[in-house]
């Protein structure tokens, strides 16, 4: 069965960059996610992992070894996006996944309609996901009014602003005991006549009904959130947003809500950064000269990642001892140890349910600029994969 992400995934597989646009409210923006709580002008800063849209981007980036940049709606001013953050770093030369998280805390369809030029920064989005309705419901908007608004918006406005995008209309996620699904039934029936929530399968094409051929309905309320996944009365917490992202990824990419392609590990205490746990910077030594600083950087990086993998439950992966070869002289033994260690750690990541597509080929006994780049790229890609696991994705 074809799906709304087919074109986006095909571009990633061929090395092309893609754009994912999300429009919605606070449950798209990530209110009550980890990292929310510091204020700028009395307004919440974006959460560390940018809610489920940021996590969905990470899952795609991890699966396709692509760099993920996420722009969050600037809730402080409500007139544009804050500067992007890189949540996942792919290999040098890899494609980029740009996620525009247009979630607006407190936002309604009225807010979205009134800020289209600012919310939709590019007409080149590959996929647009609609994730709105809670606030409309809470403010007393009739279900039939909301359903009519979103149908018109999707069929006319979005298809005009993003003419090449596939559009996914979601039923949202939140506290299942607070919002009855019947309110969303009316919206679903605008796109899929005579159907009610839960729809089966949870992803269906709305073509040949009231909508254009590039519109899909995703019944994301079927994501099994528990009371422990809710922060207060409606918003998911960090674990809830992780579940939502995984469920959406599994349905859209794997075609099944039960295909657990990516681990939902509980995470490592104290590991909360979304940038790489360790990073070997470009030209970490002058040119192709291998120095004691290079040696120490490699030892520290790989042993740090090895220690985190142990905390995640791995059998003790290999570590490198200080001065694993004669000082700062690069030898054949150094080369063999580096390659063996990096690739063994890659295998450990795979065994824990993660994904790292970049292995380190033999680099030989002669230290060159190419060898330096190969080690740098491999260690940084490994660090990205371990960081994702450590953050519970």
Low-confidence stretches: 258-275
Main pleated-sheet profile: 8 strands, mixed
Overall mean pLDDT stands at: 79
The number of strands is 10
CATH class of the largest domain: Alpha Beta
Structural key phrases:
two-stranded antiparallel ribbon, 10 strands, 393 residues, 2 domains, 38% helix, alpha/beta, Rossmann fold
Question: How would you portray this structure in words?
Answer:
The chain has two domains: 6-254, Rossmann fold, CATH 3.40.50.1110; 292-390. The chain contains twelve helices and ten strands. It has helices at residues 6-13, 26-29, 51-64, 109-114, 116-119, 134-138, 143-161, 182-191, 238-254, 292-311, 332-351, 369-390, and strands spanning 18-24, 39-40, 43-44, 67-72, 85-88, 96-103, 127-131, 166-170, 203-205, 215-218. The strands form two sheets. It has an eight-stranded mixed beta sheet, sandwiched between helices. The chain has a two-stranded antiparallel ribbon with strand order 2-3. The protein is elongated.
């Amino acid at each position: 069965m074809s799906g709304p992400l087919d074109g986006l995934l095909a571009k990633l597989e061929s090395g092309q960059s893609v754009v994912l646009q999300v429009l919605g409210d606070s449950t798209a923006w990530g209110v009550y996610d980890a990292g929310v709580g510091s204020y700028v002008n009395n307004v919440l800063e974006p959460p560390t992992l940018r809610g489920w849209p940021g996590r969905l981007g990470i899952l795609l980036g991890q699966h396709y070894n692509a760099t993920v940049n996420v722009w969050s709606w600037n809730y402080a001013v409500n007139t544009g996006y804050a500067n992007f953050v890189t949540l996942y770093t792919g290999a040098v030369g890899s494609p980029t996944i740009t996620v525009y998280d247009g979630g607006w805390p407190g936002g309604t369809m009225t807010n979205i309609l009134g800020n289209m030029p600012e919310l939709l920064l590019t007409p080149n989005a590959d996929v647009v996901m609609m994730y709105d309705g809670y606030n409309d419901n809470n403010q007393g908007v009739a279900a039939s009014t909301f359903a009519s608004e979103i149908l018109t918006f999707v069929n006319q406005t979005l298809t005009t602003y993003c003419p090449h995008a596939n559009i996914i209309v979601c039923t949202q996620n939140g506290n299942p005991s607070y919002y009855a699904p019947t309110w969303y039934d009316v919206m679903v029936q605008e796109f899929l006549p005579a159907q009610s929530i839960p729809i089966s399968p949870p992803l269906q094409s709305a073509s040949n009904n009231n909508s254009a051929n590039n519109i899909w309905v995703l019944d994301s309320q079927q994501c099994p959130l528990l009371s422990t996944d809710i922060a207060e009365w409606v918003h998911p917490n960090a674990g809830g947003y992780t579940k939502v992202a995984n469920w959406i990824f599994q349905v859209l990419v794997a075609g099944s809500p039960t295909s657990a392609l990516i681990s939902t590990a509980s995470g490592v205490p104290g590991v909360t950064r979304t940038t790489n746990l360790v990073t070997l910077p470009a030209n970490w030594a002058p040119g192709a000269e291998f120095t004691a600083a290079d040696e120490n950087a490699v030892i520290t990086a790989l042993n740090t990642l090895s220690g985190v993998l142990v905390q995640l439950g791995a059998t003790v992966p290999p570590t490198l001892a200080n001065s694993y070869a004669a000082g700062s002289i690069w030898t054949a033994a150094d080369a063999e140890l580096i390659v063996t260690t990096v690739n063994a750690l890659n295998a450990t990541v795979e065994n824990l349910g993660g994904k790292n597509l970049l292995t380190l080929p033999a680099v030989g006994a002669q230290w060159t600029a190419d060898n330096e780049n190969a080690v740098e790229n491999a260690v940084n890609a490994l660090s990205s994969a371990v960081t994702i696991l450590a953050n519970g994705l």
